[in-house]
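User: Run a structure prediction on this.
Assistant: Running it now.
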Amino acid sequence: MSQRAVYPAGVCAQDIPLKLSPAILSDGHIFVTGMTGSLADGTMPDDPVTQFRNVFDKITAVLEGARANFGHVVELTSYHIDIANHFDAFQTVHAEYVRPPYPAWTALEVAGLRRPGALVEVRVIARAP
């Protein structure tokens, strides 16, 4: 089984302080690490919609590192803080990115996320192009 790390343009392993890859390409699938809506400087926006757009933009950049896009995504899992108050806004942003056939999607409410202030973390699995 072959596998390799996938990085968005302009990012390399040394740029990531945690021992993780933004994604792993393995046997025809791209496994994208969970992404939150933080800014490039690591701060978390207060605005939920800004966080949600950042999440999907970051996932897009990682997929592009594997020459893929949201049309290749087969499964999406989203982990939410206070899902009742933010889900409609999240779903609106989500709809701007996903493409038919839409990926399988599981949305879960969780008690907390690693990044303080994060309202959502999203991970995806995509087929390699």
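Helices lie at 48-65, 83-97.
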